Amino acid sequence: MTASVRVDDCLSKQNGHLFIEKCDAIDLVREYGSPIFVLSEDQIRRNVRKFQESFRKGWPDGPVKVLPAAKANWLSAVQRILADEGCGCDIYSPGELSVALASGFEPHLISVNGVPKDASHIYNSLKSGARITIDSVEEVDVIEKAARELNRKAYVRLRLKPVISGFTDSSNFVAEGLVPTDIAAMAYKGGLSYDYVIKIAPKIMKMENVELVGFHQHHGRHHASTRYWEEQMKAFAGEIGRVCRALGGYQPKEIDIGGGFAIPRDPFNAATDYTEPVQLAALYTISKALKALGTTGRYKVLAKLIDTIVMKPNQTPAPEIAAYAEACTGTLRRELPKQGIKTEGLMLQVEPGRAMHGNTGVHLSTVTNIKRMTSPIRWNIVVVDTTEFWFTGGRYEHHLHDYVFANKMDAEMKDKADIIGRSCYGDRLMPTVPIPDVEVGDVFAMFDTGAYQEVSMSNFNAMPRPATVLVTGDRASVVRKAETEDDVFQRDVIPDHLKNNISETDGKISA
Ligand SMILES: Cc1ncc(COP(=O)(O)O)c(C=O)c1O
């Protein structure tokens, strides 16, 4: 059996090798070193256009704007591509505001989200002409003060917190996998509950320098199914209606449905991630009972049972972006008029993060060691020169990425192994997954690493972080340089009283 992974869009297999657009992954590692993050410009542009076309098709009522979430991938080169495609930008921090402004997004299409926003962030956002998406009561007066000082109008939206009572399946956002989505969404920090909205909205509407232009919502990633999105939009429309009625028939000019939709290959895999420990745990009682067989007999039986455990990344793809857009727009067009909200001329915005960036990235690393234990149980370890500390965004969200050995895509998957990273932690990037005949020097490719991963890397073990390369057809360019060891230590400061025992010239400890 060869690798069954879906290679499509910017990825292809040629002569048994993985290609990203027209670049052989093996050549990229040869030229730019290992490990590296690789991004595909073509995939970025394709994804944006899919969002734009699908949402425009479903929302002929008014303008549609795609505001990809900068947090998912705030590389300057990536942001420039998105601005070039006519996108807006969902930002969280002052740093993200800076990159958005430098990349050329139209300021009124920058949505400044999140809690907390300090006074200087609010001031600078308003000065740039960005929209503030209000997510706390305390922000209102700060916005009014800044608008007065700047002598300009602040255009704001209120981030609502609709209760998704129609969707009680377990949330994928919560590791244990048993929390109903409606409850998990309520516990998530974003959004203002109804009582607060109707307290601050009338106050905002009386302010001379502040104009309420619409509503926003974002619930985090709970479920890929279109049924979830229908229920979410129904809840959003209901909440908009409730607020607008309380405000005496207010009509919004723009609504923003946030992000949260899945990556096509959907590396979310809490089920698999948690199955393996559960399977090993199931052996606990058996293993106790097996003590009666003596040590040799016990290990013999356990070895057979452990051999049956093989994990696989999720093979159920997420619905297409077109199906997601249809579920959202269809529900909003049906539900908003029922709530007395006119959709004609209403701007619809969407803020995809993972679904925009996930499949634009591949991480390439190299096999450095292979360790095999043959007795008393069989356990294989394939060590690669990357680390889980460079995938913290995905780890936090229980990702198990699909993968291939980029130089052995036609090879039969004959065995299984843990794929282990280079840090001193257990660093189990992949638990007991199928592998071909692996050798030192093989190139290991993890898919769908374009969202949240590179931007959340750490320097654990004093490891310099790797470079990012952007592929455009048969060209590749470094868009974020690899760190050097000097970069890793550049923020360290040695207080005077600790300087004495080190010679300034050679750095050696003096006698
Ligand atoms: C306000 C807002 N919009 C959009 C997103 C993007 O979410 P996702 O990457 O799940 O699409 C986030 C992520 O946390 C967010 O907070």
From the structure above, extract its key features.
nine-stranded mixed β-sheet; 20 strands; TIM Barrel; alpha/beta; binds pyridoxal-5'-phosphate; 511 residues
Can you describe this structure?
- This protein has 511 residues and is α/β, with parallel strands linked by helices.
- Among the domains are: 56-163 and 189-266 and 314-355, TIM Barrel (Alpha-Beta Barrel); 270-312, no CATH class.
- It is 34% helix and 20% strand.
- It has 15 helices and 20 strands.
- The protein has helices at residues 25-32, 41-58, 76-84, 94-103, 119-128, 139-150, 181-187, 194-206, 226-246, 270-289, 294-307, 321-338, 354-357, 392-396, 485-489; strands at 11-14, 17-20, 23-24, 36-40, 64-66, 89-91, 110-112, 131-134, 154-159, 210-216, 254-256, 347-350, 361-373, 379-384, 403-405, 415-420, 428-435, 443-447, 467-472, 475-480.
- The strands form three sheets. Strands 4, 13, 14, 15, 16, 17, 18, 19 and 20 form a nine-stranded mixed sheet that branches. An eight-stranded parallel sheet has the order 5-12-11-10-9-8-7-6.
- Strand 2 and strand 3 form a beta hairpin.
- Helix 2 runs parallel beside helix 12 (321-338), helix 3 (76-84) crosses helix 4 and helix 9 (226-246) packs parallel to helix 12 (321-338).
- The longest helix is centred in the middle third of the chain and has 21 residues, at 226-246.
- The protein is globular, with a radius of gyration of 26 Å.
- The mean pLDDT is 93.
- Pyridoxal-5'-phosphate (PLP) binds at residues 69, 71-72, 90, 113, 218, 221, 258-261, 351-355.
